Automatic annotation (TrEMBL):
GO-annotated biological processes: lipid metabolic process
MF-aspect GO terms: phosphoric diester hydrolase activity
Pfam families, per database record: GDPD
Highest taxon of the lineage: Bacteria
Organism: Paenibacillus cremeus
Domain annotation GP-PDE: ranges: 13-276
Protein name: Glycerophosphodiester phosphodiesterase family protein
Gene3D superfamilies recorded: Phosphatidylinositol (PI) phosphodiesterase
Length: 276
C-alpha cells in the first residue's frame, strides 16, 4: 500500500451531519445545525414548505414524531399547517429535556447565518418544496455556492441546477438492494452525470459480516469512487454502522466525503486515524 499522509487526509475530509437519525442533537433545529458547524461538519436540513409558503427544516410529512403538536394536528401534513402553527410547538423536548424550547426553524434563519459566514456550508435534503421559490431564496441571500442540494431523484437535481447554476447537487442512492444500486449508478453514468457534483452511496450492513462490512461490494464502491474522481465528481458514503477498522478502510480507499449519524463518534475516530 502506498504511503498515506494521514494528517493531509483528515484535512480533506468533509462530512454531513445526517439529520433524521442524528443521535446527538434534536434533528432539524438550530441547535443541531450549530452543533455540526462547531464540530467542523456540514449540517443537513430536510426542507418542506408550509401552507403559507415558508420553507422550514422538517423531515417527516407530519409533526407527530418530533414535536409537541396537539393530538388534533399530529397527523396533519406540514404543507397544510401555517408556519405560525408549526412554530408554536416544541421541537427539542422529545429528544431530551435539556433541549426544551427548540423550535422548527425557517430556512431563512439558516441562510442569514450562512450569509454572515461564507466559510460555512449546508446540505438541503429535498422533501417537499417549490424549487423556484427555493432558488429565489438562495439568490436573495447570495449563498448559492454554500449549498449542497440533495435528493434521490436525478430530475430534481437537474431542475435546481438550471435554476441555481452555482449550487452543488448530490444524488443519494440507497444501498439495501445492491443490484438496484448498481443499475442506478450505471444509468446516471450514461447521462455523463448530468448536473451532478456528488453521488452518495448508502452503506448498509450485510446480513453476515465479513472482512468487508457492507452489502455493496467493496470493489463496486472503489470502482464508483474512481469513476467519479475521473469525471471531476465526488463520492460520498453514508455508513449506517462503522467501527474503527471500517472507517480506516474507507479512508484508505481515498473516500473523503461522508454522511454521519454520530458526529462526535466520527470525529473521534478520525482523530484515531490521524494518530495511528
Amino acid at each position: 500500500m502506498n504511503h498515506i499522509d494521514k494528517g493531509a487526509a483528515i484535512r480533506e475530509v468533509r462530512w454531513q451531519a445526517h439529520q433524521n437519525s442524528n443521535s446527538e442533537a434534536p434533528e432539524n433545529t438550530m441547535t443541531s445545525i450549530q452543533y455540526a458547524w462547531d464540530l467542523g461538519g456540514i449540517p443537513e436540513i430536510d426542507i418542506r414548505q408550509t401552507a403559507d409558503g415558508i420553507i422550514v427544516g422538517f423531515h417527516d410529512a407530519t409533526p407527530k414524531r418530533t414535536t409537541t403538536a396537539p393530538e388534533a394536528y399530529q397527523d396533519t401534513d406540514i404543507s397544510e399547517l401555517t408556519y405560525a402553527q408549526l412554530h408554536q410547538w416544541d421541537a427539542g423536548v422529545k429528544f431530551g429535556q435539556r433541549f426544551q424550547g427548540e423550535k422548527v426553524p425557517a430556512l431563512e434563519q439558516v441562510l442569514v447565518l450562512l450569509a454572515n459566514h461564507p466559510e460555512r456550508e449546508v446540505y438541503l435534503d429535498y422533501k417537499q418544496v417549490d424549487l423556484t421559490k427555493l432558488a429565489e431564496l438562495l439568490h436573495r441571500y447570495k449563498v448559492e455556492e454554500q449549498i449542497i442540494f440533495a435528493h434521490n431523484d436525478h430530475e430534481n437535481c437537474k431542475t435546481i441546477k438550471r435554476l441555481v447554476p452555482e449550487i452543488r447537487t448530490m444524488l443519494w442512492i440507497p444501498g439495501r438492494v445492491p443490484e438496484t444500486t448498481v443499475q442506478k449508478v450505471a444509468s446516471v453514468r450514461e447521462t455523463g452525470f448530468d448536473s451532478l457534483d456528488i453521488i452518495q452511496l448508502h452503506l448498509v450492513d450485510a446480513e453476515e459480516k465479513g472482512t468487508w462490512r457492507y452489502r455493496l461490494e467493496r470493489s463496486f464502491v472503489q470502482e464508483t469512487y474512481q469513476q467519479l474522481k475521473d469525471a471531476g465528481l465526488e463520492l460520498e458514503v453514508l455508513p449506517y454502522g462503522f467501527d474503527r477498522d471500517d472507517l480506516f478502510d474507507l479512508l484508505h480507499m481515498g473516500i473523503r466525503r461522508y454522511a454521519i449519524d454520530e458526529p462526535k463518534v466520527f470525529t473521534n475516530t478520525l482523530q484515531l486515524y490521524a494518530n495511528s
